[in-house]
Each structure stands twice: as C-alpha cells, then as structure tokens.
C-alpha cells in the first residue's frame, strides 16, 4: 500500500468534508495531516484496500475533530466581515455576496441535527458511498438514505428565500 497515493486520493475529499462540517480550512488541513500520520504509523497492520483506509481516515478525522471541539469548547460569533486591508465592512447584506451565502449555509448546517449533517456531508462533500457511511456510523444503508433525504429537505426549507 502506497501512503502517498492514498493521500492524493483521500486527502482532498477528507479536507472538503471537514470544512463542510464546520472546521476552518487550516484546522481541516492540520486534521488531515494528523490522520495520515496515524495511518502511516499503522501501515503494517492495514489491508491494502483503499476503501477500508478511506473509512478509517474519515473515522480518525471525526474523532480528532471531536477532540479539538472538546478541548476548545468556546464558540466565537463574528458579526462583521473584514476587508483584505483589515477594515470592517459590517454584516454581509447582499444575497449575491459570497460571504453572505457562506454564512447562510453555515447557519443552515448548524440548524441540522448532527446525524443529518454528518450523513449529508459524508455523502455530498466527502463523496462516500452510502454503504461506507452506514458502516462508519453503525446504522443501516436505508437509514443513511433517509437521513440524507431529510437533510436535503431541511436545507431547502431553511434556505427557501434564496431560491428566487
């Protein structure tokens, strides 16, 4: 098993999933790096199957993210967006503003129950198959499909005003 090839295929999906799940980009990169350090240390005990390593990587990442959240149990809310020159521009107002849309999506994801949010982001962002999500979360494939459907439905409801 070549760790470098696994990194090239799994790391981008893992990073995207972490960012979509609420981690900052730099934090996600740190988590991915730690995940692959752990995988590298376990390389002799792993099967050569890429899907097994992929599932392991997402499980390790989820646990590392939970540990970080537990260690840093404070939430900071930002009411304004900083310009590149450091000046505050105030809250985003325009629905076409990328920062505004990102904040709306982040808020919408925060309103989803964790089980729906995890299923949706593993499926849409990490591009994991339903079978792998079911294996990782310990539920049936049918329940994973229901959770993905409900998450999409809830996001449509929350973001309905943007559809126009």
Task: Give your account of this protein's structure.
The structure is a single chain. This protein is an all-alpha fold. Helix content is 66%, strand content 0%. The mean pLDDT is 81.
Summarize the structure.
Helices cover 66% and strands 0% of the residues.
Main attributes?
164 residues, mainly alpha, 66% helix, globular, 7 helices
Number of helices, counting only DSSP H or I runs of 4 residues or more? 7
> Low-confidence parts lasting 5 or more residues at pLDDT below 50?
none
| Quaternary structure type | single chain
Structural class: mainly alpha
How far is the N terminus from the C terminus?
49 Å
Instruction: Bin the helical content.
Output: 55-70%
Radius of gyration: 18 Å
The count of DSSP E runs of length 2 or more, i.e. the number of strands, is: 0
Question: How confident is the prediction overall: mean pLDDT?
Answer: 81
The proportion of residues in beta strands is under 5%
Outline: globular
Characterize the largest beta sheet: strand count, sense, and whether it forms a barrel. Answer: none
| Sequence of secondary-structure elements | HHHHHHH
Detail the topology: elements first, then pairings.
Elements: H1 3-20, H2 25-41, H3 50-71, H4 98-111, H5 114-124, H6 130-137, H7 141-158
Helix pairs in contact: 1-2, 1-3, 2-3, 3-6, 5-7, 6-7
